[in-house]
Amino acid sequence: MADASAPYRIRGATGEWEVVIGLEVHAQVVSNAKLFSGAATAFGAEPNTQVSLVDAAMPGMLPVPNRECIRQAVRTGMAIEAEINKWSRFDRKNYFYADLPQGYQISQLYHPLVGEGSVTVLTDEKDEASARTIGVERIHVEQDAGKLMHDQHPTMSYVDLNRSGVALMEIVSKPDMRSPAEAGAYLRKLRAILRYVGSCDGNMEEGSMRADVNVSVRRPGAEFGTRTETKNVNSVRVVMAVIEHEARRQVDLIEEGGAVAQETRLYDPDRNETRTLRSKEDAHDYRYFPDPDLLPLELDDTFLAECRASLPELPDAKRKRYEAAGITPYNASVLTAEVETARWFDALLEAGADAAKAANWVVAELFGALNRRGETIDQAPVSPQGAAELLALVGDGTISGTIAKQVFEIMLETGQGAGAIVEERGLKQTSDTGAIDAEIDRILAANADKVDQYRGGKQQLFGFFVGQTMKAMQGKANPGVVNERLKAKLG
Q: Is 5 contained in some domain?
């Protein structure tokens, strides 16, 4: 069995290689309007129905920065404890493509809004010792381009400018990741942070979060090799697949006497391979210069204080709070992975549920039921308050854990409250020693041979007697009383 703590290595014909990974994540800012215009940003609108004169680059149109987009980017920077630059500037990145009506993209090359920060990840959710800190070099804000559609006409491509001008945060990591698993953990954690903050919905299927994957290989500990960049990858699973394939391709190429070209590549999921898109451009190829239509951004202390005050409890802080309340590190990690789960669980705690027992129940029972039903926690038919009522009935001995499972299934199907179900169906647990003694006497009499075996030293038969008693009482007997009375009678 492989050692999970061992460093990730690619075995080549000439020895071992190490992979070096950096991710540039493009996250669409949650805002009702675009970065420099008032046009709407709703996903799924009819093509070219959300395009202002600014987005279409009509002559004489001047961009005006959207305060909310800047605020969301600053809040994101604060969430990863990054340096916030009070003075930043917009630059024009010049290139010509059919989905870029201006002939340039407004971005931030030289003076980004957010400087260095970091994201801490667990490569193994059950092991705190697997924590790794991944550096973030910068976050800058920029406009998105439009979208070319090649499948609408046999000989022509159509252009949809709805996305043109939408605000993006480009979150650039340092080349600190050394395995596909680390890159996957980083992307999942970054997505969670963005969704907690509310600055990006993290919906990778809709393209509101996508990654450019930079990969190079080297001998362990040697100088960095030449990297390639695979563009616009929109799932964690595919990011990991890209890294595995591209690292192996580079190792094979180098060992065969070739050299890795610095270039931009695309991933083909059907063939599980990357292929060349274009040779990699450098900054001078884009002829960057300060945007003459936009003044520098200058942030004051009041604005920054408002941004910081608006931040919610973030995943790491929430996880530590859960662990301090007696929840296992694994359960705490699972419960904080998605913001909707954490909110649901917090509501369960506020309704009075015991933290550790509630965590076990949510991870085992609730998640199991939702998986079977194909539902998310937002669609759960049982509310946090309803779940708290069910757990309270178990906690005070009104029903057993076995009966609780039955009650929960009825709650899922009918939407009824736990208390009402228990009352209507006569499911209350009995601690009546007279009734329990009567059933135990009957069972011991019917199984005299097993009683003799137990008294002869076969202690494991005790579980058999408990099971028979619970079955005879239809799961309604108090297990503690059953154990106590059986011990007394078996001697």
A: no
